[in-house]
Design brief:
Domain Aminotransferase class I/classII large: 30-373
Number of domains: 2
Shape: globular
Number of helices: 12
Order of helices and strands: HEHHEHEHEHEHEEEHHHEHEEEH
Structural class: alpha/beta
Strand content: 5-15%
CATH architecture of the largest domain: 3-Layer(aba) Sandwich
Oligomer: single chain
Family: Belongs to the class-I pyridoxal-phosphate-dependent aminotransferase family.
EC number: 2.6.1.-
CATH superfamily of the largest domain: Type I PLP-dependent aspartate aminotransferase-like (Major domain)
Organism: Listeria kieliensis
Low-confidence stretches: none
Radius of gyration: 21 Å
Bound molecules: pyridoxal-5'-phosphate
Strand order of the largest sheet: 2-8-7-6-5-3-4
Mean pLDDT: 96
Helix content: 25-40%
Number of strands: 12
CATH topology of the largest domain: Aspartate Aminotransferase, domain 2
CATH class of the largest domain: Alpha Beta
Cofactor: pyridoxal 5'-phosphate
Length: 383
């Protein structure tokens, strides 16, 4: 008999988003509003840079942190866009934002440390926290417009708190934090030494005021995660950026090196093109997402759903009306089976998720229009 593997893994499930998506994937004609994957193609000039890299035999390892010219260009890009102020020595090119999250947490967490997470939240952090033997402390934000308040934060902090995870605009809610809200959270954290892991992967998909990073208020404590998956529709290239103050980054580089050595050289060439000549590539996508958001919001409101209007990303986290008596999981299963529209039940993102579902509008306008018709017909039974 084999010796037992790590017991922590028994508690960890494959993400609820993926599980639900797999469950509904076999059905013909299903409109899937389940995944957070841009439905746009990668811009041509970026694809060409990757093709050129292959033809030029740029197929070896790069420096662990990434090609120096990419790190310089990424530093400029994030300075120009969000005044992040990280030098080229304070950036690691990672395998998607996913690796950046893992490396950040593996660098700072020890067993027993507590990590504060606003709930609902993207399910990519908690399993890593648990694998490290650290303890997730969820703070329910459903009564505060899906925003963590300074009072809630203060209450959640204990002597064991090591980090706060702060993703904005948020997956799954689309809600973001403005400059004043970030400043208020920062003032609670300022003297605590607690790290902020700011996941800013949706920073380019901000519909109203420009994105502001909490680094502005907490330059030493903030670890910024970003990447090109959403902004440049480059999900499959797997390029993320992990940014932190120099001394911290040095330690992160060890974790990154012994995990992946470096990000793909070909993808790095594509990334260099994206952050150099593709600074405005996101604009048409953002305009389209915003139009879709407006359309979907109007239709959902008409059907009786409760919505907090999103500030960005491409999701709605929607509350079921009281007339629906089943929980969101059972409701979503029936919606998929009877109306052939798939959304993700809220429990994939939240301990309070039984009355919510996430709808991703990273889908074509035609699919969204058809999905809204089908949902409206389905909801007629609850009138
Ligand atoms: C908040 C958040 N962070 C990170 C990721 C992962 O991004 P990547 O595909 O670059 O690994 C996602 C993907 O959906 C996300 O929603």
């Amino acid at each position: 008999m084999l010796k037992p593997i790590r017991p922590e893994l028994a508690e960890i499930q494959i993400s609820g988003i993926r599980r639900f998506n797999t469950r509904v994937s076999g059905t013909l004609g299903m409109i899937k509003l389940t995944l957070g994957e841009p439905d746009f193609y990668t811009p041509e000039h970026i694809k060409q840079a990757a093709i050129d890299a292959i033809h030029e035999n740029f197929t070896n390892y790069t420096n662990n942190a990434g090609m120096p010219e990419l790190l310089r260009a990424a530093s400029d890009y994030f300075n120009e866009k969000y005044q992040l102020g990280f030098s080229e020595e304070e950036i690691i090119t990672t395998v998607g934002a996913t690796e950046a999250i893992a490396v950040a947490l593996e660098t700072i967490l020890s067993a027993g440390d507590e990590v504060i997470l606003p709930d609902p939240i993207y399910p990519g952090y908690e399993p890593i926290i648990r694998l490290l033997g650290a303890v997730p402390i969820k703070v329910d934000t459903t009564a505060s417009g899906f925003k963590l308040t300074p009072e809630q934060l203060e209450q959640a902090i204990s002597e064991k708190t090591k980090a706060l995870i702060l993703p904005y605009p948020s997956n799954p809610t689309g809600v973001s934090l403005d400059e004043a809200e970030l400043a208020a959270l920062a003032s609670v954290l300022e003297k605590t030494g607690i790290y902020v892991v700011a996941d800013e992967i949706y920073s380019e998909l901000h519909y109203g005021a420009a994105h502001v990073s909490i680094r502005k208020f907490l330059p030493k404590q903030t670890i910024v995660i970003n990447g090109l998956s959403k902004s440049h529709a480059m999900i499959g290239f797997r390029i993320g950026f992990l940014m932190a103050e120099k001394n911290l980054l040095k330690e992160m580089l060890k974790v990154h090196q012994y995990t992946v050595t470096c990000a793909s050289s070909i993808s790095q060439k594509a990334a260099l093109e994206a952050v150099t000549n593709g600074k405005e590539d996101c604009l048409p996508m953002r305009t389209e997402y915003k139009t879709r958001a407006g359309f979907v919001e109007q239709r959902l409101l008409k059907m009786g759903f409760e919505i907090i209007p999103p500030d960005g990303a491409f999701y709605f986290f929607v509350k079921l009306p009281d007339s629906v008596q089943e929980n969101a999981f059972d409701w979503a299963v029936r919606l998929a089976e009877e109306a052939k529209v798939a959304v993700v039940p809220g429990e994939a993102f939240s301990e309070k998720g039984e009355r919510y579902f996430r709808l991703s509008y990273a889908a074509s306008f035609d699919d969204l229009a058809e999905a809204m018709e089908r949902m409206q017909n389905f909801m007629a039974q609850f009138q």
